[in-house]
Amino acid sequence: MTTTTSPVLSASGVTMRFGGLTAVRSVDLTVNSGEIVGLIGPNGAGKTTFFNCLTGLYVPTEGNVTYQGDILPPKPHLVTQAGVARTFQNIRLFANMTVLENVLVGRHTRTKEGLWSALLRGPGFKRAEAASKERAMELLEFTGLADKADHLSRNLPYGEQRKLEIARALASDPGLLLLDEPTAGMNPQETRATEELVFAIRDQGTAVLVIEHDMRFIFNLCDRVTVLVQGQKLIEGTPDVVQSDERVIAAYIGTPFEGAPGDDEVAEVEAAEAEAAEAQQDTGPSGTPKSTTARTEDGQ
Ligand SMILES: Nc1ncnc2c1ncn2[C@@H]1O[C@H](COP(=O)(O)OP(=O)(O)O)[C@@H](O)[C@H]1O
Ligand SMILES: [Mg+2]
């Protein structure tokens, strides 16, 4: 583990109100270089809203956010350009593009050619194309999706769609990666693989801030954990400190896991995957599995 502790991200006094509802209330949070920081809290605690405030989707009602010392601009693409990338709680992929194309779209903030040039294959695009493709393939290797490069993203099983979102986010060469429930809907093996992936991302020099309901995942992974309850920071500390805090146990960890958020989704995904596996057996190993887990552009 690295010993550098310069702040990459610093949020101070961030408040987000929607009409009469204060979803996030005066939250301070710092992520240092080399760190993996966890953000936990019950459903509706304001975690995703806080992410949206960090990434320019929302302009906070109060407070400010700096990345490497500079105030972040209130526009998502400028935040990405500055070096902060994210994934979404509800997957947002281009369902009818291939896996490789999805990563190439994530790359466009780092190439001189814009998105439209990339999509329309304009004259300047060809030159940048080879380099971008090479980098995108590297990222697919890194996330374990290289052999699916030519598949349509909507045909990937759910867990692999989540990995693809991570690959696409990494394509912008971020200094900070924000992950919103990266293991939701994953089976235990996929969750463990994601843990390894996040460690590898950190080891390559990208700091990580991660929202997740899976406590084992969070406490294994994170250097520090912040707990939000009703929009406010309840406690922040090392996994040991947070795990043993009675308020955290009462407010969050103590809730029965049978009813934990995501269970319905897990069941749904498992059924879809079983169906996909059957379809694959029917069509032989080279066939493209039918999948019902494709996600669209809506949602958070
Ligand atoms: N765009 C919005 N407009 C109004 N209320 C919102 C909006 N986004 C989130 N909220 C509300 O803010 C609160 C926090 O939601 P959210 O940030 O999604 O929580 P979490 O991610 O911790 O489950 C909830 O009460 C939610 O209904
Ligand atoms: Mg959320």
Side by side, the strands of the main sheet go 6-7-8-3-9-10
* SSE class: alpha/beta
Helix tally? 11
Which ranges are low-confidence, i.e. pLDDT below 50, for 5 or more consecutive residues?
255-261, 284-300
Largest sheet: 6 strands, mixed
Between the first and last Cα atoms, what is the distance in angstroms?
A: 33 Å
- Overall average residue pLDDT: 85
**Quantity of strands, as a count:** 10
Order of helices and strands: EEEHEEHEHHHHEHEHEEHHH
CA radius of gyration: 19 Å
**Could you tell me the strand content as a percent range?**
15-25%
Helix-residue proportion: 25-40%
The distinct ligands, each listed once, are: adenosine-5'-diphosphate, magnesium ion
Shape: globular
Into how many domains do the coordinates divide?
A: 2
Plain-language structure description:
Residues 258-300 are annotated as: Disordered. The chain has 300 residues and is α/β, with parallel strands linked by helices. It has two domains: 1-74 and 209-258, P-loop containing nucleotide triphosphate hydrolases (Rossmann fold), CATH 3.40.50; 84-173 and 262-300, no CATH class. It contains eleven helices and ten strands. It has helices spanning 47-54, 76-82, 99-107, 115-120, 125-143, 158-170, 188-203, 215-221, 239-243, 246-253, 263-283; strands spanning 7-18, 21-32, 36-40, 62-67, 70-71, 84-86, 176-180, 207-211, 224-229, 232-237. A six-stranded mixed β-sheet has the order 6-7-8-3-9-10, sandwiched between helices. It has a four-stranded antiparallel β-sheet with strand order 2-1-4-5, covered by helices on one side. Magnesium ion binds next to helix 1.
